[in-house]
Automatic annotation (TrEMBL):
It comes from Massilia eburnea. This is N-acetyltransferase. It comes from the Bacteria. InterPro entries: Acyl_CoA_acyltransferase.
Length: 234
């Protein structure tokens, strides 16, 4: 028990470890806790970081293209397509090695009731990067990000924003390696139809009890974009 706690503390840090412990305690009372870190990473225009290997990159444009073992509910994926979600998928033959989703403008979260907004046309959301368990030691993650950077750069996108579970140290480390910049956090408590959000950015606190009541978090990337342009010019 002590070893597991120390490992969790080392991976998540003091604050997120405390939230993780609270989430485990509240689960016995039927309360689900979701804590997210929001980050932005620059879209690189440079060369590929991973060799092409045997992976082919092509998007998924319909539910029928996803294999039966893709671990996301079909209704969730259908909702992504309805709100304009795009994808980049890595394929090894006919097998899905990994997939990365992205969206422009605004994105409604899959797990909780919240809407993320990006006013800048030079920014987008990326979310739910899935790598097949058998291929997590390969190049699929880097290949997906390389392809995402290429496509987004061609479209004039300078920053891509992500929400990461604060209880997922592997994802936090992966985003840190690609230069992610912190943009705040939000914690959601859910019990039946009720949801409470506590966030580090406006509206800071939101309580809802209906499926149509969604808080909205707006992320302004313009200061980041100005900083990027200044760095390029210097």
């Amino acid at each position: 028990m002590t070893t597991h706690f120390l490992q969790t503390l080392a991976e998540l840090g003091v604050r997120n470890t405390a939230w993780y412990a609270l989430a485990r305690c509240l689960r016995f009372g039927g309360i689900s806790v979701y804590r997210y870190q929001f980050v932005a990473q620059p879209v690189a225009a440079g060369a590929m970081r991973a060799s092409p290997g045997k992976l082919a990159m092509r998007p998924v444009t319909s539910l029928a293209e996803l294999p039966a073992d893709y671990p996301r509910p079909r209704e969730v994926v259908a909702a992504r397509f309805r709100q304009g979600g795009c994808s980049i998928a890595a394929w090894k033959g006919d097998e899905l090695a990994g997939i990365l989703w992205y969206q422009f403008g605004a994105y409604q979260e899959d797990e909780v009731r919240v809407r993320y907004c990006l006013p800048s046309p030079r920014a987008c959301w990326d979310y739910d990067v899935f790598i097949h368990p058998r291929m997590r030691l390969g190049t699929a993650f880097c290949r997906l990000w390389d392809e995402a950077n290429r496509r987004l750069h061609e479209r004039g996108i300078e920053w891509t924003c992500s929400r990461i579970s604060a209880f997922n140290p592997a994802s936090l480390r992966a985003h840190a390696r690609i230069g992610a910049i912190a943009m705040g956090s939000a914690t959601f408590f859910r019990l039946g139809r009720w949801q409470l959000m506590l966030a580090s950015r406006p509206p800071y606190c939101h309580l809802s009890g209906t499926a149509t009541s969604w808080p909205q978090l707006v992320f302004d990337t313009v200061p980041l974009e100005k900083g990027a342009r200044q760095c390029k010019a210097s």
